[in-house]
Every structure is written in C-alpha cells, then in structure tokens.
Design brief:
The chain is mostly helical and about 375 residues long. It is built from 18 helices and 2 strands. It has a two-stranded antiparallel ribbon. A hairpin with a 5-residue loop joins strand 1 (about 255) and strand 2 (about 260-265). Helix 5 packs across helix 7 and helix 6 packs across helix 7 (about 105-120).
Length: about 375
C-alpha cells in the first residue's frame, strides 16, 4: 500500500503522527518551551480547521494501523543519507541531524535505519539510494516490521544477535531476552528469590556447558572450592554408579562379581534388580535418590554373593579372579618401589623399611611355595 507523507513531516513530525509510535518519538522529547505550559487558554480552532486536523489525525492513525513501524521507517529511509554519502551529494541529512529535528536519540533513528536496510536486502522495500525526501512507496504489512526492527540497541551487537537468535529458537520475543541480558542484577534477584527461575537457570547452564569449556571449567572450580558441593557431587556420583550397576543387570542380563567377573545374572536376581530400578525411575525430579540407590545396590550385591557361594565352580573362579586382581595391584605398587629418583639412599633409610620388605619377601615366598606344591600335586594326580 502507498502511504502519503508531506516532505515537511520529515523535518517536524507533528505530535499527531507521532502518537501511534510513542516508543520512537516520545522517549527523549525536547524540553517544551514555557509558553506551552502557560495558564492562558489557547484560542480554539475554527470548525473547518478542527475538521481538517481531525482528518489529518485519522489519516496518520490509519497509515500506522496498516503499516506499523514501516511508516516511520520510510521517513528515516527517505530522509537520512546512507553511510559514505557526503552532505553535498544528497538533500538528505545525517542520522544525528534527523534525530535532533525529531527530538529523539540518533541510536533510535539508526535502529529504524538498520531495520529498513535489512528489509531492503530481503527485497521487501527499496534501498536508500532509490528514495528521496517526500517519496511514497508501497509498504509491507505491519506484522512484518517486527521481523526486522528491534527496540533495543544491544541487539545490534554480535552478543545481541546471538541472544536474538537463541530467543527466536525458544519461541519468545528477542526483546524479552535482551532485557534480561541487560539487567544481570535483576536476573540474579529473580534466581535467588524464585525456585522456578533458579531451575530454569540451572537447565540453561547445563545446556550451555557442552559448547562453553571455559564456563564448564569455572563451574567445576567453584564446586571444588565449596566443601558442601564437593561432598554432594561425590555422593551423587556414587549413587549414579550404584544405579548403573543395577541397570546393567536389568538391561544386559549380566552382573559383575566382587572379584570383577562378568557373569550371567540368574532370573531371580534380574527380577529383584528390575523391581528396585522401577522404584528409582518413578522418583520425582526433585526427590533424593541416594538412599534408594544404596538399598538397591546392597540388595543385588548380597544376591550376587549368594549366587557365587552357591555354585562350587563359580566360587573357585571367583577366588582365582580375586587372587589375580590382588597380584596385579601388588605388582603395580611394587614396581613403583624404586630408588631411581633418590640421590643418596642414606637420606631416606629407615630400619622399618627393611623389616617390612623382609616380611613381604616371606609372604611372597609362602605364596610361591603353596602354588608350587599345588602344581606338584596336580602333576602326581594326573600321572
């Protein structure tokens, strides 16, 4: 649709045409001259003049109702010169001059300017170079304006663009997200006072951790520095490991014995594990799961121990696995008992060291003797 504006409107922007767009023209008004506030009554216009003024108001209101911010965007686009153009190349004025004439800030004018520029790139409206003061063009519908215009200058920064994109992805108006970002103290107050806001903030932080290593590192450091949080994390990790132990029995039908063997879980054990797991899964999000996890873990571990003890062959395998596990740990520890990094062994010598090593040597000798005796007996039995 074509919206007619007289060239003089670009410079003066009457109060009647500004009324529908209070956010643009009334946020930073010029101080009114004293005569405006005089107690002396103004001379009322004549009937014909009043009718003309009403008609003008109605036309301006109708133009805005149909086109929204486009009507004011056109005023800026046809009156403000594009960047790079000198004052002598065009009758247009700078954004600063236009703002002074309009009685608002240059930032506000530039938001309209940039909104028009984006729309021109999309082919919605003509580019600035094709417009001149007083020119009328077909304007898009009012609803489309909000796709290009933002009422906050912070949205024009790279940070603001990222916030705008995230807000649109969440299905909310970018201005709301930008307002929150510009008021971190207000956000903090809401988090401290309202559990719902705190929960939303927690979920947002968790979603961000994967793509923000720096934030993840700082959060971990904060937790480590706080003893209560550190203990809580350890407790939750322990509960999670216990639940995973029970879950593996249900989902894979296998279970680890105390010695580390992976065996098929008996049907009775799987049923008991499934019962405990269903109770844990039914807990509410805010309900503590540590006690339930401990009970489930202890129950299935007792049943695993009973299963091992009830099967002679499995019991032997378990003892063998336990011995190998202990031997591997002992070997690893003993391999670290070297003097490679000691300049003078006399500096660290203690009588107790020799005594303990001698006791260890005797224990190792006893193990070797027992194994050798068992080997000899097996050879005799087989011959």
């Amino acid at each position: 649709m074509t919206v007619a504006f007289s060239p003089s409107e670009d410079a003066t922007t009457s109060g009647a045409s500004a009324a529908p767009e209070e956010a643009m023209w009334s946020a930073e008004p010029d101080p009114a001259p004293e005569s405006t506030w005089s107690a002396e009554p103004e001379v009322a216009p004549g009937a014909a003049e009043a009718t003309a003024l009403v008609a003008e108001d109605a036309r301006d209101f109708g133009a805005y109702a149909r086109t929204g911010g486009w009507a004011f965007g056109l005023k800026v686009a046809r009156s403000v010169r594009p960047g790079g153009q000198g004052a002598g190349e065009t009758p247009k004025v700078s954004a600063k001059e236009f703002a002074e004439l309009a009685g608002c800030s240059a930032d506000r004018v530039m938001r309209y300017y940039k909104a028009w520029d984006k729309a021109a790139d999309d082919g919605m409206v003509p580019h600035f170079e094709a417009l001149s003061p007083g020119m009328d063009v077909e304007l898009p519908d009012a609803d489309v304006w909000l796709s290009y215009y933002t009422a906050r200058s912070s949205a024009l920064t790279r940070r603001g663009e990222a916030i705008t994109e995230a807000a649109e992805a969440e299905g909310i108006r970018p201005t709301k997200a930008l307002e929150v970002a510009e008021n971190p103290t207000a956000l903090r107050a809401a988090i401290l006072a309202d559990p719902g806001t705190a929960e939303a903030a927690r979920k947002a932080l968790m979603d961000r951790l994967d793509e923000d290593p720096a934030l993840r590192t700082e959060l971990v450091r904060d937790i480590v520095r706080a003893d209560d949080l550190k203990k809580a994390v350890a407790a939750e990790a322990k509960a999670g490991d216990r639940v995973d132990y029970v879950r593996q029995i249900v989902e894979k039908g296998q279970v680890k014995t105390p010695a580390g063997q992976l065996i098929d879980a008996p049907a009775e054990l799987r049923e008991e594990a499934e019962r405990h797991l269903s109770l844990i899964d039914e807990l509410d999000n805010g309900e503590e799961s540590g006690e339930w996890a401990r009970e489930a873990y202890d129950t299935v571990r007792d049943m695993v121990a009973q299963t091992v003890q009830g099967d002679p062959e499995l019991r032997v395998q378990e003892r063998r696995a336990k011995f190998y596990s202990s031997l591997q740990k002992a070997t690893k520890v003993f391999e670290e008992l070297t003097f490679d990094d000691v300049d003078d062994i006399d500096d660290i010598y203690e009588d107790d060291m020799v005594r303990r090593l001698e006791d260890l040597q005797q224990a190792i000798g006893a193990c070797i003797t027992a194994l050798q005796t068992a080997t000899a007996q097996q050879e005799q039995a087989s011959s």
